[in-house]
Amino acid sequence: xxxxxxxxxxxxxxxxxxxxxxxxxxxxxxxxxxxxxxxxxxxxxxxxxxxxxxxxxxxxxxxxxxxxxxxxxxxxxxxxxxxxxxxxxxxxxxxxxxxxxxxxxxxxxxxxxxxxxxxxxxxxxxxxxxxxxxxxxxxxxxxxxxxxxxxxxxxxxxxxxxxxxxxxxxxxxxxxxxxxxxxxxxxxxxxxxxxxxxxxxxxxxxxxxxxxxxxxxxxxxxxxxxxxxxxxxxxxxxxxxxxxxxxxxxxxxxxxxxxxxxxxxxxxxxxxxxxxxxxxxxxxxxxxxxxxxxxxxxxxxxxxxxxxxxxxxx
Length: 314
What we know:
Keywords: Ribonucleoprotein, Ribosomal protein, Transferase
Structural class: alpha+beta
Helix content: 25-40%
Number of strands: 14
CATH topology of the largest domain: Aminopeptidase
CATH architecture of the largest domain: 3-Layer(aba) Sandwich
Mean pLDDT: 91
Strand content: 25-35%
Largest sheet: 7 strands, mixed
CATH class of the largest domain: Alpha Beta
GO molecular function, one term: N-acetyltransferase activity
Strand order of the largest sheet: 1-2-3-4-5-7-6
Pfam family, one: Acetyltransf_7
Number of domains: 2
Low-confidence stretches: 300-309
Number of helices: 9
CATH superfamily of the largest domain: Gcn5-related N-acetyltransferase (GNAT)
Organism: Duganella sacchari
Shape: elongated
């Protein structure tokens, strides 16, 4: 199976599969079959060659197109995913995932912050698929152009980059912490990882070397970016640092399972370094539901870190 952009000479395959999609799912697309069938050959050639805002990719199997997706710029930061369809006989084989990933890769390469699409909420199979590809629902609705009585909900995937904060970015991290009410502050002596959506700071976490052990602190995601898997990405990028030696974190008790996925386990207070036991007791005395967790320095294969909201204690 090969996924690639269409060329002008692909216009007949593009026409065939696009019309097949419109017949198979007439209420899933903004263009009606009758309208698309009326396009001239020149019109299809222009679409295949990319002479227009929309670009199309086809998935080929044994020389025939079995899947299609398109993308079109919405604005300078947003790329719209359109025309997604896979032939019934090859559904469930990974073709749809490959098509979506091709659009996501194009967005990342060309500095788009996010990819958006529209889906009918009652189309549970499609919605579940897009959720697995990292899309989340937005509180935005619009009528389907070809069937105005049908309301579609918008979904979005954000291109997130993770890196060590620069001196300039530490100021933005301090601003994020102020926004979410975290009083732990920032320090140039810590390794602070930033999650960025384009130029916007989406989340951050601190890795603090304290008295010979590593302490994970200040894991926070900006409210605008929560429940999009960003905390999971940050935690994944922490693992190389955590694996250098004994590591600890003091999360809220409802987040134990999340941190367990990175190798942390509940730790007895008696076994904590004295400075950390004192810190934990202070949190508990203030009424916070905090637990201590420990991670050994070297672990075997890590389990997959799931998309779960998370916040560590200061």
